[in-house]
Every structure is written in structure tokens, then in C-alpha cells.
């Protein structure tokens, strides 16, 4: 799966989870940019992504996510 | 019922869509009952509250939450917090787990030392429960413990007192004894839940170390669903009747085509066995007070032959209403609800055919039609749905089926009388009407929480609130029991009046619909007014609070000659009667008081 395709699908997960169709993400997006993206919703975001791509993040990976770009890199590696 | 919340649901989808589901539920126009729920957690509880809210809203209960700060369940309970104190919860849910066990036995401990540790751990909880009960007088729901996710002693962990598995099993048993001997205290069985979900997935340590969740986040909807089932059961939202299709639901094959010899039921073949197991499961519900009915497209005669199959467990006598005809099934469902005098939302309809299920679901508002799959999954889906969650099991529940059968006989008798009063007299009714007594407190509480139709204020009471009424000088609390020549209807009516100077304010007046049109309300009013006069009361003030379900009593007070003193736009009204010249109304029931 290409990085672009992963980004698109992750964006859909964001829109679904935060119930906001106008969300647009890029590599530099962080929790500050999305209303309601707090530490508690972060858990559901990670879980939704894992379910969607049928992958499992290691604890060390999750603790190193700094922005959406990191996250998409990790997902892309795991699904390819 | 929200489709996404109906078992078997997709837990991940619930978590992902929870905001949207909540919006949908809130905009459904349902008439919500507000409840205050305090969640005292030994680990993170955020998503538990969020999911619990969805399931409760789906049952018509609108919760507001107090959540303790992370892991502060015990401190909150023992030392209090201003927020919690002023919150005054209706329900306290204590979410503890394996992660909250302070002390496990070590391999060097003697059995005596292990017993001491165990009792110390148990006391940690009993102290907390006692403090909470003393302070809040409300319902407490307490998790038991899931089994540990590793076994130091391997298989011996289960049997040896040094094993954590053994230790937690013993602690769980102590919790159960407490629950069995304590009113208004319920166990949320996460031990079963985690086993059913898969303990390894449930206790995924990733979620503990990352987020301090004691269970995997995708398991949270199951946990919330389980808690919601206890709460909705306590507030009278259980379902009352199981309505069953026949062909390919209670037996394999079509009795009209295959003949009674050709249908599959009994212990001779695998297909026969699976239907027998389902029949036994359905029949066991009858003993719990669930009313069994049939809704089948069949000639009546064929249906009866099928039900009289020698290998069958369920017999025609096990059912209250049998609709085996060529009407549409949605029409039959409506008729069954009417004959039982209950609302369609109290019915659960089981049919193997998705088309029939769809029609019933679409045509009859509120009726529960689970997607039961095929016969081998029926039991799992009905059971996990929690339609009939048992919280307080009274003798009345056991006898309910007999009462409905007796009702059917009374209805038959009714047809032979010209004059309704003659008919009532012929029933040879006798009633006991008396002040609240301790032995009836559970039944009284149960009734206040589940009566919707003949209920003037729909005020819900906890067991401790009923006790306060019973013991309070400024209250008159009356219960009424009614029996007749066909049987005992049990405790069927409750009135609670609050004395204020020379007026009596009726805060609650309810009656079970199984004794509608029997003039029991006349007998209750006579007795209430008699007692009011003895206490020097001059005026009775009655209130009618309109709900979607209690229209049948909108002119209740008018019938007794009360004058309307106010009426709101929403249909609520207040009524007043000077009792000086009141004359008794009842002349068909013999009353003992």
C-alpha cells in the first residue's frame, strides 16, 4: 500500500472518530490541530488504526509518535 | 433499539462512532429517565463511562457521571470528596480489577498467613462498601476479579492456596457471599466476561502500561453493556416476554409440510438435539417469570401437533398466548402485547427467518428482534443480549406465569356476565391493604421501578428510600395485595403520601396492570383516606406527571372527584380533594387492613 493511500485511509479514520468530515491531515498534524484529540481519544485513534489495517503497534512505537507523519511511516512499513 | 448497540455488536465500531451514536440516541425523542452514576475506578474509566452512557441511553436512561480521579476509588469512598458528596449518586459502580490487588500470597507464606492476607484484602473492600452505603444509601455495583493473566504455579495455580488464581477465586467467593446477604449490592461479573471474551485479549498488558486501562480498550463496550444490563434491570427496563416462531426455530423443518413425524426435535439426531437444547433454554425462562408466547405462520392445528411432539420440551401449556395463524407476524406481535397488557418494547421476538424479523422490526415500534442467526447461535445471542437480566428475583416472578394463565381464565368468565359489577363480585376478591412492611420492601422497590402505565408520577425509588418512607413519621406508605378465586395476584398496588400539615401529598400511586379494572384503586383510595382522617388530614393533593406510557391514568383523580388546581403545557397536572365528605367507593373487594 502506498504512503498516499495510507494517509487517505488514516484521514477517514480521523473524520469518523472525531465526527468531523472537514478534518484534513498532513505529516505535521499533531493533537493541537484537531479539536477533541486528547490523550483519551488518542487511545481510540490507535485502536481504530490497528483494527483498520489489521496491525499491532508495539508500545515503543506508540510512545515515539510525534506527529501524524511518524504514525503514517510506521503504518506504511507494517502493511507493506 | 440502536442497531449498532444490539448484540452481537461490533465493539470497535461502537468506540469509533460513539459521538455519532450518542447524538442519534439523544435526538430520538425518547423520554429519558435521569440517573446519577458515580464511577469509582481503580484504573482508567473514561471510555467505560462513554460506552455506558450509550447503552443506558438506548434503554431510556440518561446518565450523568461522576468519575473519580485516576485510581482513587478507595480514597473517594473512604474519605469522601466534596464533588462526590454533592453529586449524591443513584448508583455507584466500583471498577476494580486484578491490578488493584495490593497483596498476593508468596510461595513462602503459610496457609494461615495466606488466610490473613485474604481477610485483610476483603476488609479493604467491605470497609469501603459499608462507608458508601452509610453515606449514600444507594445501589452499589462491584466488579469481581478476572483471573490473573499469568500462572506462576502453572496448573497448580488454581488449586494451591499460594496460587493467584486460587487466591482470586476465594476472594470472589467472599464477594458473592456479601452480595447474597446485602440488599442493593450487585456483582458485575467480569470474571465471566473476560473468560467469554478471551482472558488473554482482555488482559492485554499494552493497555495497562500505555494508558492504565485494566482491560483491553476493544473489550470496553462488552464491559459497559454488562453494567448497563444490571442498571436497566434495576430500573425496570427488563423485557417481559419471549415470543417464539415455531418452524425452524423451535424445531427443524416445517410441521405443515413434513408432518409431526418429520420435524427434528429430540435427542436422536444432531439437528434434533440442537433444537431440544434451545427448547430447554426457552423453557427455563418460564421459571424466571418470563412469559412465553408463540407467533407462527401455521394452521393452529398443525402448530399444536408440533408442540405436542413426544420428544419436545415445550408444551402448549407453557405458553400464555399462542398465535399460529396466517396473519402477518407484526399484527400478531401487536395482538400478543395487547392480550398480555404489556408494551411491544417488553417483547423479544425470536425467528430464524430474517425477512420475518425485518417486517416485525419495521412495523412494530420498540419490539426487540435480535439477529439470532441459525439455531446453534440462538442461545448465545439471546443470553448475551441480557434482555432478562436477573437482579432481584421475587416469589412474584416465579408465579407470574400462573397469574397470566389465571388472567386468561378470568377474561373467559367475563364474557358470560352482562353486568361488569356482577362479574367483579363473582371473582370473590379479597385484598390486604397495609402499611409498608420489611418483608415487602424488595417487591415494593421493584414495582416502583418497573410500573409505567398505571403510575401517576412514575417516581422511582431505591430500596433505602422505601425504607425511609416506611420508617418516616411524615409518610403514609400503603401496599395492596389482591387475590381472587382464580389465584393470588400478589402485591399489586403502592401508594406513598407525604404529610405536610393538614395535607397529604401523593408522591406515588401505582398499580400493576395485571389487576386493571378490578376496582382495586377504589379499595386503596378508601383505605388511604381512612388513614388520612385518623391523622387529622383534611386535604389530599394528587399529581399526574404525564409520560409516554401513563395516559391511562390521566383522569384518575377526576374519577375520584378531585378538583384540578393546575395544569402545565406538558400535560402535568395537580389535583385536590377535601376528604371530609368522602364516601367509600369499593363494594366488590373484601378488604383486610
Assign the structural class of chain B, choosing from mainly alpha, mainly beta, alpha/beta, alpha+beta, or little secondary structure: alpha/beta
Give the tally of structural domains of chain A: 1
General form of chain A: globular
CATH topology descriptor of chain A: Non-ribosomal Peptide Synthetase Peptidyl Carrier Protein, Chain A
Uncertain ranges of chain A: none
**Greatest interface by residues involved:** A-B, 14 and 17 residues
- Binned strand content of chain B: 15-25%
> Helical element count of chain A?
4
Say what the CATH topology of the largest domain in chain B is: Rossmann fold
Written overview of the protein:
The complex is a heterodimer of chains A (80) and B (593). Chain A has one domain (3-79): Non-ribosomal Peptide Synthetase Peptidyl Carrier Protein, Chain A. The longest helix of chain A is centred in the N-terminal third of the chain and has 15 residues, at 3-17. By secondary structure, chain A is mainly α. Chain A contains four helices and no strands. Chain A is globular and about 30 Å long. In chain A, helix 1 (3-17) packs across helix 2 (39-53) and helix 1 (3-17) packs across helix 4. Chain B is an alpha/beta fold and 593 residues long. Chain B folds into three domains: 3-234, SGNH hydrolase (Rossmann fold, 3-Layer(aba) Sandwich), CATH 3.40.50; 241-385, Rossmann fold (3-Layer(aba) Sandwich), CATH 3.40.50; 427-592, Gcn5-related N-acetyltransferase (GNAT) (Aminopeptidase, 3-Layer(aba) Sandwich), CATH 3.40.630.30. Chain B has an eight-stranded mixed β-sheet, sandwiched between helices. Chain B has a five-stranded parallel β-sheet with strand order 2-1-3-4-5, with helices on both faces. A four-stranded parallel β-sheet of chain B has the order 8-7-6-9, with helices on both faces. At the A-B interface, helix 1, helix 2 and helix 3 of A face helix 1, helix 2 and helix 11 of B.
